Structure formats: C-alpha cells, structure tokens
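User: hey, got a sec? need Diadenosine tetraphosphate (Ap4A) hydrolase folded
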Amino acid sequence: MSSVFTKIINGELPGRFVYRDETVVAFLTIEPLRYGHVLVVPVEEVDRWTDISPRAWTQINEVAQNVGRAVIEAFDAPRAGYIIAGFEVPHTHIHVFPSHGLEDYNFANVMKMDETDPEKMDEAAAKIRKILDTDEKGYPH
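Assistant: Yep! Here you go:
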C-alpha cells in the first residue's frame, strides 16, 4: 500500500510543493511547527533513512540544505531546523523549518491541520518557491 507521501507525490492528494526532481520532492507539511515547515522526501518509498542508497541520500540532503537556506531567507530565521523522525509516516522524510531556538524542535507544538491558516500556508510555499526559483509544482524554472 502506498504511503500518504507517495499519494501526494503522485497527485492523488494535494500538496504545496516547493521543489521536485526525479529523485526528491519537497512540500509543506500539513501540521507545521512554524509556517515554512517543509518535508524533503525521496520519490522512492523507503521507510527508514538508513536504507536509502548513498546516492539518493546525498541528493535528498542537497535539496534539504537548499530548502534550509530558502526558509532562513524567506522567514528571516537565524537557522533552519533539520529533523529526521520517521515514525508518523513509513516513508523517509526530513523536516526542514525556520528556527529561532530549541523550542522550535518540539513536535508537541505542531499546529494541527485545522489550526493553520490556508492563506499563510500558500504564502509560505510561494516565498520558498520564489527563492528556490521553482514553479507551483516545484519544478525548477
């Protein structure tokens, strides 16, 4: 059975994409720690990050680093947070988000889907895409 991320990647579920290529996608999470919280996900459905090929892992981290730079700039944050948790969806993903301190890393503080402002979510995705120079589907211009 496909993961929820595979369904988003395949267009079966909606997603606010900020980056996409043949190996990696990046889209906003529906339950962010802060606006601008992005998930960097391999297209290949692999549960544990320790099982990804070294080549794909390098590409995933390169995208995560670029997204991190974009969220720092877009949200005037001193750092970009980077977390690999992986228990909520059995599909490897890296959380990248604007961070102002360690308190931003607490998943007990996520905004639930019904607490987020859809307009602010769209705006966050647009800000990141502008810096990454990608279109609404996440493809580079």
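Quick note: DSSP finds three helices and five strands in the chain. Let me know if you need anything else on Diadenosine tetraphosphate (Ap4A) hydrolase.
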